[in-house]
Structure to design on (573 residues):
């Protein structure tokens, strides 16, 4: 072979070698985990779109952590000499991230649907509860703290409704409704405490009312029955109910009267002792009762002795059924107020010695507060 | 002659190696990351959640492209670089959207605050005019307490506005307005029912 030909062969071989080196190197380079990481990222994005960070937080954070770990490991492997790279760990993290994202998405979709239904039902039931409790609260002499707590509960509840209805912001709605329920449970405790006698005395009150009506039937006389909780005045004649009117009571109408100026309307069996026409009363017409009766006096003395009421307290008197009612609130100092026209209806039917029975409630406590 | 040919081949090989070693677009990476952080600071996750999620995904795509190129023997960063520039632009748009939405909510809260404050002022004026006789005293005292609760709620709203939590402020002020309106109606009814004067009874 001539020298020139030999040189060209050598050059061609060298050229071939140089050209083939990159292809050899490429074939030796480990396959990058591009597809696996892309799949994991897409699954993570889908999970995020399904609000997994809200409704499947733990699973979502796990998926994100695994994805980030995959990227970090990928970067670490890329810094190693290319022939020594190993992307198995990257692929493993990516596959685990993908799986966790899919689970997070599925869980989030289930949870958000469940939470949405749960919240809707909760909002509807609490709406009804609050509107009924609102009426109850207005009629009870609750202390200012309990009333304030109730207002805070109502505000939190409305925040929950606004978050749910306007923004479908389920996590805020859930948080606010939980606050509302906590506050309402405190208010319920105050109400239950106020009404505690209503569970123990109901049977006695029912019996008192029945006895009074029986007296009217047996003796053919008119009797008056007052239901304090219902704010009702009933007049029976010959055992038959003749009149039913709304009444207004003392500001602190719940519970029995303890002493003068406590703004409470007493409970018990009384008699009309005096009828007072317009000229003799400031309240249109009035029926004076024999408060305090014997039981009132005994209870007053016992309470004074036990220190339940101040030693300087007086028992009080001048409890009447009178006119000038119809104000829509409990405003008297302990008397029972009717409208003037209603006083006209009963005034002539009633005499001195007409029995008057005043009870706490003719409705069971469970029917009052168990919504 | 052979030497010249070999030198020429070496030069070609060297050129190939040079062009396969593009620099990582670190400045673009840093700019994209910084831009996304700014959208986070602008509370984009709260005010424009879908846009924020899409932005996060775009950044991940760009960073993946970088690593994919680093894995290669002959690296070309022109496409990832373009992606990163796009992410930075997208982030600026998302930030602007979040800020606009935030301003919208803020304006709504400001208006509602003014409405509620006006209602509370009216309620206090009605309270001052209401008859002080015992017939209405109990009801008016209770309403006074309710107004105080509304005022406490307004303070909470102002604190939320100061801290930049306009969504929470929005929910609370809407709830407060509903209560203030209820109180206003209740007050007017209570005043209308209170009539005349009476002497005290025991």
């Amino acid at each position: 072979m001539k020298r020139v030909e030999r040189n060209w062969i050598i050059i061609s071989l060298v050229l071939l070698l140089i050209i083939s080196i990159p292809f050899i190197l490429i074939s030796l380079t480990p396959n990058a985990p591009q597809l696996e990481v892309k799949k994991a990222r897409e699954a993570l994005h889908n999970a995020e779109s399904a609000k997994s960070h809200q409704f499947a937080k733990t699973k979502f954070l796990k998926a994100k952590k695994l994805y980030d770990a995959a990227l970090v490991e990928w970067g670490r492997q890329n810094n190693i000499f290319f022939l020594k790279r190993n992307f198995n760990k990257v692929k493993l993290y990516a596959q685990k991230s993908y799986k966790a994202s899919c689970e997070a998405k599925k869980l989030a979709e289930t949870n958000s649907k469940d939470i949405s239904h749960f919240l809707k039902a909760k909002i509807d039931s609490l709406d009804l509860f609050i509107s009924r409790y609102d009426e109850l609260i207005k009629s009870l002499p609750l202390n200012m703290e309990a009333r304030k707590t109730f207002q805070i509960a109502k505000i939190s509840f409305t925040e929950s409704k606004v978050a749910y209805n306007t923004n479908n912001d389920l996590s805020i709605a859930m948080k606010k409704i939980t606050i509302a329920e906590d506050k309402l449970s405190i208010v319920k405790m105050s109400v239950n405490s106020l009404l505690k006698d209503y569970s123990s005395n109901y049977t006695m009150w029912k019996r008192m009312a029945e006895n009074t009506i029986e007296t009217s039937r047996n003796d053919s006389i008119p009797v008056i029955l007052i239901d304090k909780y219902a704010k009702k005045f009933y007049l029976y004649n010959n055992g038959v109910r003749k009149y039913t009117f709304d009444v207004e009571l003392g500001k602190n109408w719940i519970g029995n009267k303890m002493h003068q100026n406590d703004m409470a309307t007493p409970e018990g069996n009384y008699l009309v002792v005096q009828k007072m026409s317009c000229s003799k009363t400031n309240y249109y017409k009035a029926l004076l009762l024999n408060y305090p009766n014997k039981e009132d006096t005994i209870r007053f003395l016992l309470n004074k002795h036990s220190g339940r009421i101040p030693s300087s307290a007086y028992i009080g008197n001048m409890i009447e059924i009178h006119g000038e009612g119809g104000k829509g609130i409990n405003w008297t100092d302990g008397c029972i107020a009717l409208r003037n026209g209603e006083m006209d209806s009963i005034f002539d039917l009633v005499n001195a010695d007409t029995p008057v029975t005043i009870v706490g409630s003719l409705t069971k406590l469970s029917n009052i507060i168990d919504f | 002659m052979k030497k010249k040919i070999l030198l020429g081949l070496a030069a070609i090989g060297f050129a190939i190696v040079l062009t396969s070693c593009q620099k990582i677009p670190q400045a673009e990476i840093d700019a994209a990351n910084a831009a996304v952080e700014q959208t986070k600071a602008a509370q984009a996750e709260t005010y424009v959640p879908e846009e924020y999620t899409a932005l996060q995904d775009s950044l991940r795509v760009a960073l993946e492209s970088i690593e994919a190129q680093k894995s290669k023997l002959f690296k070309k960063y022109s496409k990832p670089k373009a992606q990163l520039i796009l992410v930075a632009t997208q982030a600026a748009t998302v930030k602007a959207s979040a800020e606009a939405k935030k301003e919208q909510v803020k304006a709504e809260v400001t208006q509602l605050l003014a409405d509620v404050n006006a209602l509370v002022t009216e309620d206090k004026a009605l309270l001052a005019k209401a008859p002080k006789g015992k017939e209405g005293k109990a009801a008016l005292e209770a309403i006074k307490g309710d107004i105080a609760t509304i005022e406490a709620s307004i303070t909470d709203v102002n604190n939320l506005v100061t801290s930049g939590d306009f969504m929470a402020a929005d929910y609370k002020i809407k709830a407060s307005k509903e209560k203030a309106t209820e109180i206003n109606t209740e007050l007017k009814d209570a005043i209308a029912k209170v009539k005349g004067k009476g002497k005290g009874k025991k």
